[in-house]
Design brief:
elongated; about 50 residues
Amino acid sequence: MALAIVSLGIGIPLSAIAADAAGLAGLIVTWIGIVGVNGVVARGKKSGSSS
């Protein structure tokens, strides 16, 4: 749960920076990265990894 909250907190300013610097492509890449990190962490917790 903490990672999701931190991801949203970081995602908002990153979205603004990416959209300003690179437009829609930057915004999409930013959110793909955020979703990817959350997915990897969720998958690790699901499989019982203690990392």
